[in-house]
Amino acid sequence: MQIIGADFVVLCDEKFSVIKKGGICFDTRGILEIGDYVELCAKYAESKNEYFASCAITPALANMHLHLEFSKNVGILHFGDFGDWLDSVLLEREHLMGEDLQTAMQDGILECLKSGVGFVGAISSYGADLEILANSPLRVMYFNEAIGSNIEALDVLYQNFLVRLNDSKAKKSTHFIPAIAVHSPYSVHPKLLEKVLEVAKKENLPVSAHFLESKAEREWLESSSGYFQGFYERFFKKTMCSFYSTESFLEAFSGLKNVYFTHCLEANDKILAKIKEQKARIITCPKSNRLLNNKFLDLSTLDGILLCLGTDGKSSNDSLSLLDELRIALFAYANRPLETLARELLLSVTRNVFLDSVLPLGELKVGNFSDFAVFKLPQSKEFLAQNLILYAKEAHKLYIAGEEVLGLALQKALEKRLESKAEKLENSKQRGEYGKISNF
Ligand code: MCF
Ligand code: FE
Fold first, then answer.
1. Counting ligands in written order, which one lies closest to the CA of residue 86?
2. Counting beta carbons within 10 angstroms of the beta carbon of residue 394, is it exposed (0 to 12), middle (13 to 18) or buried (19 or more)?
3. Per the domain annotation, does 149 fall within a domain?
4. 331 partner at 20 to 30 Å CA-CA among 49, 148, 191, 208?
């Protein structure tokens, strides 16, 4: 059992309560008591304790949409227009995973941890990220992706999906939740959709889907015309019609629990009302949306739908830092009152992700898991969510299941870098390159 305290303990409860000079008493299994730091220390005098001055403690943050496998995409893909981006994904498909993917994914995990993220919703297209994520300190909702529009290939694609899903089910724990990703309405055949959602229903697995991300997708769903018509002709030599209308795609998810729709930039009021009725959540990825679709989600239309935040992958973002994402969102939504927006954003990476959901996380309360992030703040008498988002460029500490994980992760990364530097030096010595001008 131990106690940590800080100038502000931000509960992320319904009322956005903040305890000044607050403390949390916890062990590796969960939070035991929350209150005044000095009083907790007096009550549990034998416990180890630590106070973080000029800091706020929040629940560990959740990045709910991430493609770790695309961590080597930097500079390869075309930004500025969704169609150009998707063309570049297809044209570069042989090179998207890149060499030394493991190192890039390890760096990506470190970027997450450094930004106070203790939980990720990882979309896995190939399963190449399974081991590295399962062995990381992060808690993971692991969305095995189903994708494929070609009816002849469906059996193979479905079998491949099942193999990946089973591999991930073997890792199931309170740190690792197997789940299903349906790529999108333009890329998943109705037969494949039916089969994977049947599995989701039967096994009560969380599901995510890219949905209504681009104008091109909306046009395709509404009238089987526009960019996707040419896309199928150019890349698959086929004349196709959309498999779904916006409504019929959405309808397929009815009756499922824990559904996350990513992007929804082009969702109209009718679609949003249906998403609300289904109690599904929307994940927004502002930087990705700016880069691929020149647009941000209109928060004023959400009408109580729980909003979550994600970075997407390096395929559509320059970083996997959720603090970067929060900061950009704070600037992007210039028409919302600043502190109200900052609080909404903070809740989108904590409470909203887990409310009535799979794990006791996202809010600091007795019985919830001991996952906390500690952020250094500028000195201030009151807690301002805007200060956290503006000034915290990195987390100061990160606890997952009651253990501080950031210090060790940073130390391991440093050791690895030193090792590889020493290796490179040794190699260049052996090649007789040591001391050449080019090495300066
Ligand atoms: O969220 C972005 C944009 N929308 C759709 N897909 C992806 C995104 N980032 C990566 N992807 C992946 C997707 O999961 O791209 C692959 C899929 O496996 C190729 S099809 C766009
Ligand atoms: Fe994505």
1. 1
2. middle
3. yes
4. 208
